[in-house]
């Protein structure tokens, strides 16, 4: 877009300018508004050369607007990034200075809080230790009778119960008397149950002693009967063993005869299997030789096919290299033409600067003269 036109376009009050909070983008937005105003209702007839040139010129101006917008964006973000880094550095310095003042005060407060907490913890531990010692003493005093049933006789357990009842918990445990009374009640309840169990065990033991005496007499009678039966059984087993030994000798002789016959039969079978195996090995060797011959013939055919494929690929590679070389020659010859076209385009853009336009036209004519001697290569498929 030629210089000076942007300022003239800014004077239009009815232009629809895209407004944003980023004022750095406003110049680009105003130029865009002017372009949209100029192109309102425009329809290009690209079959006409003038309209096609106008369409391309307008597209180039749009590209230049996008490029300017990208440049403004990069510059604006760079400035913001510098300010953000400056803010972070200032924040870090001021925060460090605040902490220098705050830390000694905070350390003193925390030290006092730790001392208070340590004092309270020491008091708690002292109370807990005293209560633990008192409970241990109560357990030792109240649980002397807490033994498995039967270890002590019922009379001894009743004496323990009377001893525990006689303990003065108020004088012995002071402010822990309620806990001591509760523990004593629980122990007395358990002790009463153990006394009942002990009495039941003693009665049961007496009954068991009587029962064991009766059982011992019955056992002795049964032992006498058992010994008599064992003697009779021994005589019968001796007779039976003699009869089984004679029968076993007869069976052993018969088994030896059968084993000899089976050994002779297996020998004959083994000789027959060896003859059959030798015949099978001969047939297998002939089949293997035939298979190797066929495989060798197939391998020769595969190698011939592979050689033909390699030759075809080499020919294809040679043709590809020739096409690539022709394409490079065409590209080298097209570079002067491209430079000429660019010079022609630049001459069109220099409408307002006659000196620059004449300089560009001279360059264009020089390139056209140099193209008269260029020989263009034929197409790749020619």
End-to-end separation = 45 Å
Q: Which strand-content bin applies to the residues?
A: under 5%
Spans where pLDDT lies below 50 across 5 or more residues: 1-13
| Strand tally | 0
User: Overall pLDDT, averaged?
Assistant: 79
Shape: flat
Largest β sheet strand count, sense and barrel closure: none
Which structural class is indicated by helix and strand composition? mainly alpha
Radius of gyration: 60 Å
Helicity range of the residues?
Answer: over 70%
Give the helices and strands as they follow along the chain: HHHHHHH
Helical segment count: 7
Give an account of the 3D structure:
This protein has 382 residues and is an all-alpha fold. It has a domain at 146-256. The protein has seven helices and no strands. α2 (26-38) packs across α3, α3 (49-142) packs antiparallel against α6 and α4 crosses α6. The chain is flat and about 150 Å long. Residues 1-13 have low confidence and may be disordered.
